[in-house]
Design a protein that fits this description.
The complex is a heterodimer of chains A (272) and B (387). By secondary structure, chain A is of the alpha/beta class. Chain A has eleven helices and ten strands. Chain B has a three-stranded antiparallel beta sheet. In chain B, strands 4-6-5 form a three-stranded antiparallel beta sheet. The model of chain B has no long low-confidence stretch (mean pLDDT 89). Chain B starts with a helix and ends with a helix. The chains are: A alpha/beta (272), B mainly alpha (387).
């Protein structure tokens, strides 16, 4: 949706303050090998609340790495380390020693590149996040499952077969199920790591519509390889190259009138 | 058409007869060796079935020789009647026969220990050993594999641990037997619940009020527990390796999705990893355990005896925990050891053949049964949990 100008956006969703920052990355450097080489170097950016922010850049530029820093998914890598800087989410440094990554991830959900529903029923997939939080009450779960599936525009397609395996769904449906599963936990931020790269154009279009709707309620950070997608879905765009943030501005600016040469070369398709 | 004109017209005619012969000979050689292996398999299985089946089955109803499965092992008596007819009798039948026919002529009487009766003792013993082995090996093996694969930090230390576990797989089985004897059988660190502690062996005893029993650290002696655990130690490397493979086969996406939804590490492992690794774990583990259950050397010094008149639960004293403890610290007969006894320890005689091949045949059935169970489990889980 290239017409999501900030002004229109705030008119559409007046409950979201337009200028509030929800994620504040300050001079972040990150290494996958205990600091020998930095995969990300001195990145500073502020992600506004209630907007869609896109990370673009050629492969290996660090955009996915940065995304995975935001919910500490990189904790899975033994040798990963934040070498300098801070990430503040909702005003809290998420790498502080008293931050529990489990609690953080309840607030910062993630949708992955390859749709990865569990080989369980559709219902159990959506209820998973609540179940691991210890919610056993059937009516609460039922309600959350229905609500999340409705929000992810899947309810009408699956409401008669909630107990069927999620793997019987099409690729696009599986990815929307993964989105439903993520928002069932009611995070404030949803991270999406190339959510459409394994999908066909029609399924992609549906996910993009969905992103526009979810924006009413969640702050979305999306990594994408597809520049058209970034122009369609995002309000702000950050361009990364070789682990550095080259330019970060409103999406129209990045694609219409970028201030850096590298950005212009990339968005006009001269490399990457 | 005359062959000359055909060959002169054929541009692809073979030029070298020798090359063809060499090729044919190579193929023939490889085929021959393959068929030699096949012949070995057929001869082994055939011989066992040929000699074993008549022991298990009989011509009249119920067609199965149930006594072979329900009788305890006992001495086999062989003698000739006055008419020169050869008779073989289990000891109980022989004693009854002598009592009812006190003046029957018995010539050339021979007695073969352990070669008569049935194999209920060895069967029960092997089952108990397998149960102890399986419980311990699965629990410890899966835990270790989960730790190595999911928790431990990758690096030199982890590689060293893996290497030493894998090295355990190469240790000869008799070494496990010796280890088991020293550790589980003779060392006094393992406690038993008993009313009559062996004060000479016991390190110390803890009286258990209000019962009049003791928890006595006197070691397990040659017993089901000692033997089963020795087998478990031996099965561990195989089980750990198999579990790790199964865990590695679970897609990374499941783990990431689970964590991203706010699961703790253990919740992730329990709900998003282990369920999908179970088919592989069970299949490989059951096969691994079957393999060690057939070992003789590890149980020779730790659990097995040549003959025993009572089954473990018949011999166990006390009640409740004491009964269980006493039962598990009984020595038992076991199929592989029984086969060893009736084949290797007794002087060779045609009279032993039935017991030898009957036991081997049952043992083979047991192993095949376990393999089938593992295949069945895998198929069942695969259908339920495939991705």
């Amino acid at each position: 949706m290239s017409d999501t100008l900030p002004i229109l956006d705030s008119a559409d969703a007046p409950h979201i303050a337009t200028n509030e920052t929800i994620i504040n990355i300050d001079d972040l450097s990150f290494s996958y090998d205990l600091g020998k080489t930095n995969t990300l170097r001195n990145i500073s950016l502020e992600i506004p609340k209630g907007k869609v922010t896109a990370f673009i850049g050629p492969s290996g530029c660090g955009k996915s790495t940065l995304l995975r820093c935001l919910n500490r998914m990189n904790d899975l890598v033994d040798t990963a380390k934040v070498t300098t800087g801070k990430i503040n989410i909702l005003g809290q440094d998420i790498n502080a020693s008293d931050v529990d990554a489990i609690e953080l991830r309840k607030h910062v959900g993630m949708v992955f590149q390859k749709y990865n529903p569990f080989p369980k029923s559709i219902y159990e997939n959506v209820a998973y996040g609540l179940r691991v939080q210890g919610i056993k009450n059937k009516s609460i779960l039922d309600q959350a499952v229905e609500e999340s599936l409705q929000k992810s525009a899947l309810w009408s397609e699956v409401k008669d077969r909630l107990n069927d395996s999620a793997l019987g769904l099409s690729g696009g449906q599986q990815q929307r199920l993964c989105i439903a599963r993520t928002i069932a936990v009611k995070p404030q931020i949803v991270l999406m790591d190339e959510p459409c790269s394994a999908l066909d154009p029609i399924a992609t279009a549906r996910i993009e519509e969905l992103i526009a709707e979810l924006q009413q309620e969640f702050t979305i950070v999306i990594v994408t390889h597809n520049m058209q997608q970034a122009t369609r879905v995002s309000d702000r765009t950050a361009f990364f190259y070789l682990g550095e943030l080259i330019e970060y501005a409103d999406t129209q600016v990045i694609f219409g009138n970028p201030s850096k040469k590298q950005t212009e070369d990339y968005v006009s398709g001269r490399f990457g | 058409m005359p062959p000359e004109s055909a060959s002169s017209a054929n541009p692809f005619r073979s030029l070298s007869r020798r090359r063809q012969i060499r090729d044919g000979a190579t193929t023939g050689l490889f085929a021959t060796f393959t068929y030699i292996v096949l012949a070995c398999a057929v001869v082994i299985i055939g011989k066992i079935c040929f000699d074993g089946l008549p022991v298990l089955f009989k011509a009249e109803a119920p067609f199965v020789n149930t006594e072979f499965f329900t009788k305890k092992t006992m001495t086999l008596n062989q003698f000739y009647t006055a008419e020169g007819e050869m008779v073989r009798m289990d000891n109980d039948d022989y004693l009854a026969f002598k009592e009812s026919n006190p003046d029957a002529v018995i010539k050339d009487h021979k007695a073969f220990s352990y070669a008569g009766g049935g194999i209920v003792g060895p069967l029960v013993g092997t089952m108990m050993l397998v149960i102890v082995c399986m419980s311990a090996a699965l629990f410890i093996g899966i835990s270790a594999a989960v730790y190595l694969n999911e928790y431990a930090k990758k690096g030199r230390a982890l590689n060293a641990i893996r290497l030493s576990i894998m090295n355990l797989a190469g240790v000869p089985s008799i070494v496990y037997g010796l280890f088991g004897a020293a550790f589980f059988v003779h060392s006094p660190f393992f406690p038993v619940f008993t009313h009559t502690p062996d004060l000479e062996k016991a390190l110390f005893t803890i009286p258990l009020w209000p019962t009049d029993g003791y928890l006595s650290f006197q070691g397990w002696g040659s017993s089901v527990l000692a033997g089963g655990l020795t087998l478990a130690v031996m099965a561990l490397p195989v089980i750990i390796a198999a579990c790790e493979e199964s865990l590695k086969a679970v897609p990374k996406g499941f783990r990431e999705a689970s964590l991203a939804l706010g699961a703790t590490k253990w919740q992730m492992i329990r709900t998003a990893v282990l369920p999908y690794a179970t088919p592989g774990i069970l299949t490989a583990s059951v096969l691994g355990i079957t393999r060690v259950a057939g070992e003789t050397a590890p149980i020779m010094f730790t659990a097995a005896v040549a003959g025993k008149d009572k089954l473990p639960w018949e011999d166990a004293k006390g009640s409740g925990l004491y009964w269980l403890s006493d039962m598990m610290t009984q020595s038992v007969q076991a199929l592989p050891y029984h086969i060893y006894v009736v084949t290797g320890k007794l002087p060779d005689d045609p009279a032993l053949k039935d017991m030898q091949y009957g036991s081997v045949f049952v043992f083979l059935l047991l192993v095949i049964g376990f393999a089938m169970i593992s295949v069945y489990l895998r198929a069942r889980f695969r259908n339920k949990l495939k991705w």
